[in-house]
Design brief:
Layout lengths: L8 H39 L3 H6 L14 H7 L9 H32 L8 H9 L3 H14 L6 H25 L3 H9 L4 H12 L1 H17 L2 H7 L8 H7 L7 H36 L1
Length: 297
């Protein structure tokens, strides 16, 4: 008798389910990428088209290589006295504020989070709750008292005043973020270093900071994005000092009906580009820090 080959239903069913799941997976990825990246790609393409082409052919999405035009970027970034909108100067002000906030917030957060984890003092167990309580206060609630206080001390309309406000905004949550990283640093390593003669600051600089580098970088990125994109306090404190406007105020003026949409898109892309660059650079440092930590472990 000849053997009869049979195909189990289970294996066929398994293959069909696997193919269906594979199709659904890639379809979900495609829809997600289109929903997230679609508006950004359209904005970039729109910023590269001449305004006349946009008006005459509004449904054309992809510009021809011959019609690609970067004049919208120069118009958005050029100084106002040269016929532009001065966005480059506003982005420079934002860079000063954001970098200053990151530097001060990182120093304060590192020292404060380390003290909350390693030092013994009254109320140490309540520090976490206090950090979050301060962070949970809405910014609009603090706007009026801060405006009155900074007006009296002469810091309203100054970039240093904005740095102080952003510092007060970001330090509580930065302390909370870094505290969790410092808790993961073995206390025995620090005790061994202090036994060998290291001071407390040397322990922080040589041992704690390298081991907690990924957390410090991610915290700095968070602070940078807050300080770069913040609008409420920038409007409240700098509205009458146009030469000190930040990028968020500068891009807000481009939403006027008299500004062409291509210029608005160009300004938006130019405003977003520094954040993307900082994210890419810090992502590389973050990955290298994680790799170094794994090799040491």
């Amino acid at each position: 008798m000849s053997a009869v080959r049979t195909h189990p239903r289970g294996s066929t069913r398994h293959r069909v389910e696997r193919r269906v799941l594979g199709v659904l997976k890639w379809a979900t990825i495609a829809v997600t990428v289109l929903a997230c990246a679609g508006p950004l790609v359209y904005g970039i393409l729109l910023s590269l088209r001449p305004l006349t082409e946009v008006i005459n052919n509004p449904l054309d999405i992809f510009p021809a290589p011959s019609e690609m035009d970067f004049s919208s970027y120069t118009t958005a970034l050029r100084p106002e006295e040269d016929g532009g909108h001065g966005l480059a100067r506003f982005m420079g002000n934002s860079a000063v504020v954001a970098l200053g906030t990151v530097a001060l917030a990182t120093v304060c957060s590192v020292l404060g989070a380390y003290a909350a984890v390693r030092l013994r003092f009254f109320g140490r167990d309540s520090v976490n709750a206090l950090f979050l309580m301060v962070y949970l206060f809405p910014g609009i609630v603090l706007a009026v008292p801060l405006f009155v206080m900074f007006s009296r001390i002469g810091l309203r309309g100054e970039l240093i005043g904005l740095v102080i406000i952003y510092l007060a905004q970001t330090v509580p949550v930065s302390l909370f973020m870094l505290r969790n990283y410092f808790l993961a640093v073995p206390a025995g390593v620090e005790e061994a270093a202090m036994t060998d003669g290291c001071t407390r600051m040397q322990v922080i600089w040589r041992i704690v900071l390298p081991m907690a580098l990924p957390g410090i970088i991610s915290t700095g990125l968070y602070v940078f994005m807050i300080a770069w994109n913040e609008y409420l306090y920038a409007l409240l404190f700098l509205v009458d000092k146009r030469d000190r406007w930040t990028a968020s105020l500068g891009i807000a003026q481009l939403s006027d009906f008299a500004v062409p949409p291509t210029v608005l898109m160009a300004g938006s892309i130019a405003l977003t580009l520094p954040v993307v660059v900082v994210f890419v650079l810090t992502q590389r440092s973050l990955l290298s820090g994680l790799t170094a930590g794994a090799e040491k472990g």
